[in-house]
């Protein structure tokens, strides 16, 4: 955490094809080793595949999937008098969206399947239907926060 000043929030430009900020965030999280063109090709192919399978607007399905995975609370470890407590904290909307995107992409990468496009499209479809491993991760975090609700007094 910076001691002198709070850094300025960088503004993100929307993606060039769909003019959507959320898709640009997904591309940035998908990217590995600076290969943004490859990440954008993967996402646009995924969008095309989702559109073909569902016959609905694929961008809306992706937005719904991110909305379903976005957590409302999370737990953070706090040390109080030598012991560590899992303290539940509310999540800001920006952080919640970032966590949701991260969970969907990590569950896509751990999924067994042929290629990244099919795995990513399946994960987005599962998340939009409130099933899948990213939804399971969100529910697990909610259960941990509910179990440690007694330590909410240690928020700072």
Summarize the structure.
The chain is built from 6 helices and 2 strands; from the N terminus they run αααββααα. It has helices at residues 21-30, 36-54, 58-69, 93-110, 116-128, 133-147, and strands at residues 73-80, 83-90.
N- to C-terminal distance: 14 Å
Q: What is the typical, i.e. mean, pLDDT?
A: 92
- The SSE string, one letter per element, is HHHEEHHH
CATH evolutionary superfamily of the domain at 57-154: Ribosomal protein S7/S5
CATH architecture of the domain at 57-154: Orthogonal Bundle
- Strands of the widest sheet, in order across it, are 1-2
- Rg calc: 18 Å
Count every beta strand, where a strand is a DSSP E run of 2 or more residues. 2
For this structure, the CATH topology of the domain at 57-154 is Ribosomal Protein S7
Name the CATH class of the domain at 57-154. Answer: Mainly Alpha
* Proportion of residues in β-strands: 5-15%
Structural class: mainly alpha
Number of helices: 6
Tell me roughly what share of residues is in helical segments. Answer: 55-70%
Could you name the ranges where pLDDT drops below 50 across 5 or more consecutive residues?
none
Shape: globular
Major beta sheet, specifics? 2 strands, antiparallel
